[in-house]
Amino acid sequence: MPNIADTHIVNRERVQPTHANNYESAHGGIVMKWMDEIGAMSAMRAAEETCVTAQMSRVDFERPIPIGDTALVESYAYATGRTSVRVRIEVSREEPRTGETEETTSAYATFVAVEDGTPVPVPELTVKGKKCEELRDRALANEPERE
Q1: pLDDT in tens, 69-109
Q2: Is 60 helix (H, G, I), strand (E, B) or coil?
Q3: CA 6 to chain centroid
Q4: Where are the beta strands (DSSP E) in 81-140?
Q5: For the chain, how many helices (H) and strands (E)?
Q6: DSSP characters over 131-144
Q7: 46, 80 Cβ separation under 8 angstroms
Q8: Residue 96 near residue 57, CB atoms below 8 Å
Q9: What is the C-alpha separation between 123 and 9, in angstroms, rounded?
Q10: Whole-prediction pTM value?
Q11: Cα-flanking dihedrals φ and ψ of residue 140, to 5°?
């Protein structure tokens, strides 16, 4: 069975002028695309199946990521349902010369495991060790209410 730490992914994207809005910072849609891609990778590690996005909720854009900075996209699965995987996604801006970071964007997403377009069951996600507990607790602390 996969554990939370197995699903933890950190990716970097350099913000280029082609990623920018009129304010010379990363366009929100581009940031969401990166979040969706990395979030899906975490979900697939948890599900051990191909996953598709079912829901993206509570996307908070707190500050911009200027051109030239690096978008640091971090995601991990923290809970599973019968065919779904819940993923926490956090983005920070990273100053490439100093490594200094600052949180910019965060979201919760739900992905569904599919095979030939049909939802399939996912394994239970285990919590093994301190890192897994810290990641799960961090996600659950601010998780939006589920309907």
Answers
A1: 999 999 999 999 999 999 999 999 999 999 999 999 999 99
A2: strand
A3: 14
A4: 84-94, 101-115, 118-119
A5: 2, 6
A6: HHHHHHHHHHHHPP
A7: yes
A8: no
A9: 19
A10: 0.93
A11: -70, -25
